[in-house]
Amino acid sequence: MHKSFLIYLPSVLLPRLSSFVLILVGSHYLPADQFGYFSLIVVIGEFAEMTFTNWTRISLTRFGSGAAMLPYDLVKRTFSITAACSAFSVLVSAAVIFAIARENFTTVFACVATYIVSISLLRLGISLNQCQDNKVAASSIESVRAALTLAAGSALMVFYHDFLYASLCGSLFNIVFGILSVRIGTARTTKEKDNSVDLKTLLTFAYPLILLAMFSYMITSLDKALLKSYYDTTTLGHYSAAFTFARSGFDIIATAFNIGGFVVVSTLSNQGRHDEVPRFLSRQMAHITAIALPAAGLFIGSRQALATTIFPPDYYDAFVTATPIIAFGAIALNIKNFVYDNAFYIKLKNILQIPPLAVGAGISAILGVVLLRAHPLMGAAIMFAAGSIASLLATALLSRRLVDIPLPLKQLAASALLGVIGWGITDRLQAGLSTMLSPYLILALQGAVGGAIILFSTRMMAKADRKALA
Fold first, then answer.
1. What are the angstrom distances between the C-alpha of 219 and each of 104, 355, 407, 448, 459?
2. What is the model's pTM?
3. Could you tell me if residue 202 is inside a domain?
4. CB-hemisphere CA count at 13 Å for 59?
5. Can you give the residue range of the structural domain that contains 379?
6. Residue 288: is its pLDDT beyond 80?
7. How many structural domains compose the chain?
8. What does the alpha-carbon distance between residue 444 and residue 435 come to, in Å, rounded to a whole number?
9. Residue 379 sits in the same domain as residue 470
10. What's the CA gap between 227 and 230, in Å, rounded?
């Protein structure tokens, strides 16, 4: 498990790092409206591609994993269905672009269509290698692609100040490395094995995954789509930069815990040790919040220094206004995804994830209609946070029928208290030293205080774990 984790680690971190650095470069070297279009292309492309095409890759992994050489019929059918789904995704994206970005329809559509086709090819090729346990090829291709996309995309932003070149450059690298990954993966197929998976089975497998993806992306992306439809790409650019910065760190924290955590939960369930599953998931929630809640306090208290030192001045208001709300929405969504959703996975009841996501998506949409016209930045952030929290609460209630996960109340209270203390100290540092020290020094002091509090929180959790296991 550790070997597999280390092999895949670069392919997980580098794409995230690449996206994060491109946000910083784009916010500095692209005009705000151009950066807004750059963000919109990713939002629309990811929504359409992941909603209507991702299920084909999951089905390939589900029905093809474990074989040294995949059946050629299965791979061929998956490629044909993926091509059809990608074409449908492009049509859906065209309708969305016409609705919210018709003033620049041709250019945005060209970028989104190229993005969808290229990313579908790349992701299918990587999935083809992963399900044949070709870890090194899959990880290497994704890591090198991310590094080259970062370097070339940043250079194009710096020299041309236009979203078009950076977007098409990323898609070009997707196509090149997608073709490479497909060639490597298809070299290990065989025509000697019969394919027992028919189209009806694949479609039955698909429809819950499509609904899950659609509602999930409504919670995480509808705020940006409605913001663009009510306002302009400049407002969207400001908000998108704040959203990405506020959410990314919390996603990495939770994902890091769940990489090994889900394996442990699955093992406990497969071995019939069902009584241990709720306790483990409760501890996982405690560990995630032991870092996330103090980190949120640090983030909120230091957001003014962060906005001043990292982003251009015109991004300041969006960053200071939206990021505290987005941070709590990100924490809620990660607890849902990496604690309570595990109950559905181990009980093979994935379809039960749909109602909580539908509730969250509906609340998000209603709040968007009510709030966005009067309060664009705060309204968009509230959309995301409220949808995430509603989905978390609904998931927690529904999952109790399957796995009754106890709330680690003492640990949650301690983590929340440390978060409040961290916020109070860092906020006072900002207020007391803003006229005396540069924002960089203030941020360094705030980081030192926040880091010490997070370290203390994790030590408390480690001590609680040792006591529980004693």
1. 26, 13, 25, 34, 34
2. 0.86
3. no
4. 26
5. 207-470
6. yes
7. 2
8. 16
9. yes
10. 5
